Amino acid sequence: MPLLDVEDLQTYYTARGDVVKAVDGVSFQIEKGESLGIAGESGCGKTTLGLSLMKLLPPNGWVSGGKIRIDGQDIATMNENRFRKEVRWRKISTIFQGAMSALNPVYTIGHQLEEPLLYHQKISKKDAESKSIDVLKSVGMNKDVFHRYPHELSGGMKQRVIIAMALILNPKIVIADEPTTALDVIVQAQVINLLKKLKREQGLSIILITHDLGLISEIADKVGIMYAGRMVEFGSLEEVYNSPKHPYTDKLLKSVPRLKGRKRKLEFIPGTPPDLTNPPTGCRFHPRCHKVMEICSRQDPPTIIQNTQKTACWLYAKRSES
Ligand code: SF4
Fold it and tell me: For the chain, which terminus, N or C, has the lower number of CB atoms within 10 Å?
């Protein structure tokens, strides 16, 4: 049984009277200790996907259909009270975007780390302090940080505290949404190395949500490429990066500079992502696709599976039919 099984997930928002289909029929699975990188342009639905898994959607958003199973238990239909007690932070947690604003400035780091332990595990204050210090050490921080306030820490230290908070109840899955945004490159590398270490040593499953394809190549076992609310390509890191099948994935990868190998001209994708209140018919990428065919604007492409690589594109459906 997969650790996380997402099946045909649909998450919608209302905005100015319209329905925005931010995630529309996304399916994927990850196993224990596996990491998944989810990439795509801004507005493709990757952050909404993370918020759906954590049940932290804003008031105008809701999961309209599909299943989210953790260890076989469907959490999509679980009520908020039960989810807060049994699942959020215990089985799945998140490293929020923007460490600078995710910490409460009027409480010490220790207070903020202890709070979930006291609430969920009903342990003594002394044990909560000891566990908090252990978790701080596991993310490479000195125990003195326990008594400090957020304003006394650098950006990189705050990010480590946010990671410690995500780990405090020993979850099996951690969602890291743009965990290195606004950090300098040295601190970025330290944060990524820390996530790799936690994955290796604690068997943590990580879902890394980012537009940075280089970051994903550092840490991910599997990769999902999202476009306009849909998972257009999914497979192992090697499959997706070495032989991308979907024209969108191909162009995304060719838009990233390479330091090694033969030099090549950087490519770009013309146009902008579609308005999800009224997405294009058929393949949502068809107005921007350099391989568009007549059928693409008329019908949704089926998802074709080759080995473990799944691609939603008519190019491969036609080939497999022939
Ligand atoms: Fe391009 Fe058609 Fe494939 Fe969509 S289905 S990515 S438009 S070739």
Answer: C
User: Candidates 291, 299, 300, 321: which one to mutate for ligand 1, based on the most atoms within 8 Å of Cβ?
Assistant: 291
Cβ of residue 315 lying under 6 Å from some atom of ligand 1 = yes
Residue 13 near ligand 1, beta carbon < 6 Å: no
**Span from the CA of 301 to the centroid of ligand 1 (angstroms):** 8
Q: Which residue's alpha carbon is nearest to atom 5 within ligand 1? A: 313
How confident is the prediction along the chain (322 residues), in pLDDT tens digits per residue?
Answer: 899 999 999 999 999 899 999 999 999 999 999 999 999 999 999 999 999 999 999 999 999 999 999 999 999 999 999 999 999 999 999 997 776 678 999 999 999 999 999 988 889 999 999 999 999 999 999 999 999 999 999 988 998 999 999 999 999 999 999 888 777 788 788 888 889 998 999 899 999 999 889 899 999 999 999 999 999 999 999 999 999 999 999 999 999 887 777 778 888 899 999 999 999 999 999 999 999 999 999 999 999 999 999 999 999 986 544 4
For 35, 36, 158, 183, the CA distances from 155, given in Å and listed in that order, are 25, 25, 5, 7
- Contact 314 CB / ligand 1 (< 6 Å): yes
Q: Are 207 and 31 in contact (CB under 8 A)?
A: no
The Cα-based distances of 213 to 66, 224, 259, 304 in angstroms read: 28, 11, 14, 23
Instruction: Give me the residue label for tokens 């125990």.
Output: 143
Ligand 1 contact via 158 beta carbon (within 6 Å): no
